[in-house]
Write a structure and sequence with these properties.
Layout lengths: L7 H10 L1 H21 L4 E9 L5 H7 L9 H14 L1 H11 L8 H7 E6 L2 E8 L2 H23 L10 E5 L5 E2 L4 H26 L6 H7 L5 E10 L4 E6 L1 H12 L6 E7 L5 H11 L4 E5 L14 H5 L10 E3 L5 E4 L9 H5 L2 H11 L4 E6 L2 H6 L6 E7 L5 H13 L4 E7 L1
Parallel strand pairs: 6-14, 8-12, 8-13, 9-11, 9-12, 13-14
Antiparallel strand pairs: 1-3, 1-4, 1-5, 2-3, 6-7, 10-11
Length: 425
């Protein structure tokens, strides 16, 4: 998870950031639901209610000579009669005889599909449903006249006419629309679509790995302050890149946390990205009339043939003079030392040597700020005792939450001082 807990503010933030796609999902699902409902013919229903007599009284038993074992509870009778109404061919044949002149194409199967019966304690509700309200009304009219006689004759053929087990309680009213209106279906599907879209973005905020903006970045490591948000600054007239927006804020916050340290050594650790902000930060420091040295320790740059000789060549003794390896950049007051290529040892082993530590101390005597550019927290951890403080640089849309936590844990385990986060947007 990107965050250990979820707040109401997070719910609002997710909604605010993704309001447009949520609204689009609502409109699309609304239109789709309404269109589907319009494509399906509307249905109309009407129902008649029948009362089932409770025939368990002693007087009835004495009068008709029935035994208690021959009688069931009225609730059970209701269920049995409802099943009888839905399934018995005899009932539908009697109704078809009356409908044959009006609807000659009506069949027993079509009629049975229109009828349903449900029971509730002592009542049976018989419902007729059809896409034409006139057909529903006609079928219900003839059906209700046959249900009670049919059940009485079928279930209790020996009863006298005075003792009817099923009687009509309420006649069927005119059929009304039973299917939902297209606007209602559209509203329901729209709400469901919007909710599912919101839920998708919320789950992505909670469980997605990629960090897409500063809100998600700061929630991963709330214990670290956000030192600055860097944005590309393009001069459209000259089509050149200027210093990133927010760089001055980053430099100010880093300077405050260094607390006036004499020639601080700052590790700029790119998490999932190159440590390019180290170069821009160096330019910002030089603007404050400071001499700045950027030492490139990016793993991705080490040993590239197009790069000049550098630090590892000096540490392995192939370059006797360090001055020849320092390169003046286009920014006044900013020097660069490339990593070079390690032939005889691993780069991490060379950084752990006393010679490199002595080199840092000597450089600190002639520089105002030393920036160590890393793209790997493991390499930065090797120099934790020499680095004044580290800045974790995160790329929105590039860096992963697990990757950022792992980098921070690596530096913590090495007891490195982490100043905060810099978000590259």
């Amino acid at each position: 998870m990107k965050t250990a807990y979820l707040t109401f503010a997070d719910l609002g933030t997710v909604l605010k950031k993704h309001l447009l796609p949520i609204l689009v999902a609502l409109l699309v699902c609304f239109g789709a639901g309404a269109a589907v409902r319009l494509a399906i013919p509307a249905t109309y229903s009407t129902d008649a209610t029948y009362y089932v007599r409770n025939m368990q009284g002693e007087e009835f038993i004495k009068k008709n000579g029935l035994t208690t074992s021959q009688l069931a509870s009225v609730q059970t009778l209701c269920k049995e009669y409802a099943t009888l109404i839905e399934t018995c061919d005899g009932l539908y044949d009697r109704v078809l005889e009356k409908l044959s002149s009006l609807y000659p194409q009506m069949t027993r199967e079509k009629l049975r599909a229109m009828v349903s019966a449900t029971s509730d304690n002592t009542l049976i509700r018989v419902t007729v449903t059809h896409t034409d309200h006139a057909v529903a009304d006609t079928v219900a009219f003839y059906l209700q006249s046959e249900v009670a006689p049919f059940v009485n004759e079928t279930a209790w053929p020996h009863l006298s006419a005075e003792m009817q087990c099923v009687t009509l309680a309420s006649t069927a009213p005119p059929a009304t629309r039973s299917s939902a209106h297209p606007l209602v279906i559209g509203a329901l599907t729209g709400v469901v679509g919007a909710f599912l879209t919101y839920l998708f973005f919320l789950l992505r905020f909670l469980f997605g790995n990629t960090l897409r903006d500063t809100d998600e970045i700061t929630r991963v490591l709330p214990e670290l302050p956000l030192l600055g948000e860097l944005q590309l600054n393009l001069n459209l007239d000259e089509e050149v890149f200027l210093q990133p927006k927010g760089l001055h804020t980053l430099r100010t916050n880093v300077t405050v946390r260094l607390k006036g340290t004499q020639c601080p050594i700052v590790g700029v650790v790119g998490v999932g990205i190159d440590s390019y902000p180290a170069e821009t930060l160096a330019v910002s420091f030089s603007g404050a009339e400071k001499r700045v040295l950027v030492i490139d320790l990016n793993d991705a740059h080490q040993g590239q043939p197009e790069l000049p000789a550098g630090l590892f060549d000096y540490l392995e003794g192939r370059e006797a003079s360090l001055d020849a390896l320092l390169h003046q950049t286009e920014a006044e007051g900013v020097m660069r030392l490339w990593s070079g290529f390690a032939h005889n040892a691993k780069p991490q082993d060379l950084l752990a040597t006393a010679r490199f530590r002595a080199l840092l101390q000597s450089l600190a005597g002639v520089m105002d700020v030393i920036l160590l550019a890393f793209d790997n927290a493991d390499t930065a951890a090797i120099l934790s005792s020499e680095i004044t403080g580290c800045v974790l640089t995160v790329g929105a849309g590039v860096t992963g939450a697990r990757q950022l936590r792992r980098a921070f844990a690596t530096l913590q385990n090495a007891e490195a001082s982490v100043l905060g986060l810099a978000a590259w947007l």
